[in-house]
Amino acid sequence: MNFEKVFAPVAKTQKREPIEDLLASTQKEIYTDDSFDDLLNQLSELGLVEMREKLEDQLLDDVYERKIMTMADACCYVENLIQKRKNALEFLRAGLSSQEKDRDVIKARLRMVYDIDASTADQELFLGSGNIARVYKLAHQPGLCVKKVINDVSYARENSVSQEARFLNELSGFEVAGVRTPFVKETISGGDLTVIVMEELDAVNFELAARGKAPLPPNFDINDFFDRLKKYITALHEQKKVFHNDLAPRNIMICKKTGLPFVIDFGKSAYADDVKNADMARDMDLAGIEASRSMMRQFLDANSGVGK
After folding, report:
1. In angstroms, rounded to a whole number, what is the distance separating the alpha carbons of residues 107 and 254?
2. Range of the domain at 171
3. I want to staple 149 with a disulfide (CB 3.0 to 4.6 A). Which of 17, 65, 170, 194 is the partner?
4. CB atoms closer than 10 angstroms to residue 44
5. Is 308 contained in some domain?
6. Whole-structure pTM over 0.85, yes or no?
7. pLDDT value of residue 12
8. φ, ψ dihedrals at 103, nearest 5°
9. Is residue 307 domain-resident?
10. Structurally, how many domains does the chain consist of?
11. How far is 143 from 60, CA to CA, in rounded Å?
């Protein structure tokens, strides 16, 4: 990958630099098979190799076999994807401070983007999903995963990725009774990317475990687990003045090594000063804990040899 071509800094002179060429409009008046091939090549240059491979056969089939779109439609569709990715790259470049705008930092951020593309295209790296986002392991960065928003409209009704990351960053190092949240590595919100890159927890999802779809760690103790979780959430309310607002079973993880809780997904979280009724928000979080406790208790009672 030619990083200088893809993400060169914008010069202050009138001379066109590679980044300007890359961010220039791709609109064409006449669309041909050659135009389509050129656009596909631009996808590859922008790091969207897997997308290019999927789209080439699919769109050509729609044009020539199924005849449900014209070549102009196919080219416009690819142009739109290209523009979204250019917007994302421009967002990354613009977001760097003057001290960060050196070649190594730019390359590292671009590699992150390419790793996100490759990872989210590989179903073997899929970890889980909700109504708004999907989570994948990062293929080339062990210990990290990416939360990719797939429903921007619904997500925007709650928090942005930067707001959610703000909660996670503020809670970094905040551990109560062995309970904590994952740390955040990076956020990207621009063009076709709305993602949070964060720590991949060595844990199982509570909801899946309580449904018998994932194994419980052998040292899981339901009473100890929920005593600790309640202490953490109480401290979250009283010390950090934060309400989770979505403490459902799917947003609790169980550490494989210790059997202790992790709390995830702060996409609906709010500060006490920003909620209309703090007592109601507090009660909702605590009710979420009790609902999860009841769910796990039913599972353990039905499977007497599992857990404690």
Report:
1. 35
2. 119-199
3. 194
4. 14
5. no
6. no
7. 38
8. -60, -40
9. no
10. 3
11. 39
Residue 144 sits at φ, ψ, to 5 deg, of -120, 150
Q: Are 194 and 207 within one domain? A: no
207 and 195 belong to one structural domain: no
Q: What whole-number distance in Å separates Cα of residue 180 and Cα of residue 182?
A: 7
- Please say if the pLDDT value at position 125 is more than 50: yes
For position 137, which CATH number holds?
3.30.200.20
Residue 63 neighbours by CB under 8 Å, 6+ apart: 69, 70, 71, 73, 74
Exposure string over 126-164, b if 16+ CB within 10 A, otherwise e: eebebebbebbbbbebeebbbbbbeeeeebeebbbbeeb
Higher pLDDT, 2 or 121: 121
Cα–Cα distance for residue pair 60/272, rounded to 1 Å: 53
Claim to verify: residue 127 and residue 171 sit in the same structural domain: yes
Residue 71 shares a structural domain with residue 162: no
| Cα–Cα nearest to 262, from 307, 205, 195 | 205
- Alpha carbons within 13 angstroms on the beta-carbon side of residue 270 total 17
Query: Closest Cα to residue 35, out of 86, 70, 87, 62?
Result: 70
pLDDT at 85: 78
Same domain, 129 and 108: no
Beta strands 193-199 and 203-205, pairing class: unpaired
Angle, CA 304 vertex, CA 298 and CA 308 arms, to 5°: 80
